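Record format v2
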Amino acid sequence: MVKNIQCLEKCLFLKLLGFALGKNKNKKIRLNRRQLLVGTASLSAIALTSKISNSQETNPNNLPPNVPEWTSELGVGVDANPYGMPSEFENNVIRRNVEWLTASTESSVNFTPIQDLEGIVTPNGLCFERHHGGVSVINPRDYRLMINGLVDREMIFTLDDLKRFPQTNKFYFLECAANGGMEWKGSQLNGCQYTFGMVHNVQYTGVKLSDLILETGLKSKAKWVLAEGSDSSGMTRSIPIEKILDDCVIAWAMNGEALRPEQGYPARLVVPGWEGNMWVKWLRRLEFGDMPYMTREETSKYTDLLPDGKARMFTWVMDAKSVVTSPSPEKSILHKGIHQLRGLAWSGRGKIKRVDVSLDGGKNWQTAKLHDPVMSKSLARFTLPFEWNGQELLVQSRAIDETNYVQPTINELQKLRGVNSIYHNNSIATWKVNKDGTVDNVRLG
Ligand SMILES: Nc1nc2c(c(=O)[nH]1)N[C@H]1C(S)=C(S)[C@@H](COP(=O)(O)O)O[C@H]1N2
Ligand SMILES: [Mo]
């Protein structure tokens, strides 16, 4: 159990790579949809579900000029749903996990169904979850945040204390550093959700740490902060003081309501633009110190083994990245003619400046439309109309952020970092639209 928890993120993906290598000993790793469906129960279940929803037949009695059945009877009353749920016809829009990637459900991950979402806000119930020791259940009356170490006054805050400070309300994306980790060596998972879905974007309400610190005071020697979670995983990370004082937030609400238990109820750390692992949930303590604490999560984990045997560490920022969410492996093209290509782009360094889209595997590029609002360290929505007449397409998107950083190809990334990494794969993905309109995750070159 302990071993499972400790090596999960690495094991998960190594297991997955092993799976691919085992099946393709002498070939380049290139699994197609058919092979994956044969190999995995969870993916076939998804194919089945989408088949069911696609095959729901139209009832001609409900079509004009007839009076549809829902008009001739009373609707459901206001007492039916004290807390509203999506339409029953949207039951395919759910978080999903990959069973054979999962050591145990308590130390696991599921994925946001980004292919089914519009705009830039992730609904609370669809935000991917990543926890190393399950979801803690905390009565907010028993919640305390302790601040100790190199401060003038060590203090303990209740949740109500935190809510009396000036508040901030900002949108930020959170991306797990392992998002797309399975795709380092070759295309593996045939889904937008599985290859890009460890990201969510919500509006956080909370108190800026720079405001909270005015209360405790800070010793001049304080250079680092240890953030500690109160869940069974004892998640701990070191964060440099410059970042803490710049834009870090202790949040108690997301998208207007209290944090969901999965997201760290009643309070979590928000570390805008930096890897998800640092956004400590169920936050119980901040210790100010003069050195990084070198915890497991920043030494053995969340470091990248490079080709020369050295490892990169403290790889905090999430570099610019984008994905076409439709068409995508889950979003086939169903008819010929004009379509709206849709996608998401984000950067941990600031605002997205431009997104380019290619339909021919990167030979020609067009500039997509970026939709307002485009905010710093938040998902941005892009669209591009295109015409499809039954031809094969190789769809790609490339994000450029306000620092002029350009999202790399996988070949460029592998040249720098080799193929042993799990974390920080922000490379351009390729979706191959087949002649029948189905779409596959492929690797070019
Ligand atoms: N206390 C605690 N904080 C945690 C974790 C955890 O297991 N325990 N997981 C981290 C990881 S690896 C990620 S990617 C994000 C996921 O946040 P989410 O579950 O809100 O998507 O939380 C981080 N914070
Ligand atoms: Mo993560």
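The CA atoms of residues 305 and 311 lie 4 Å apart.
The first helix runs from residue 2 to 23.
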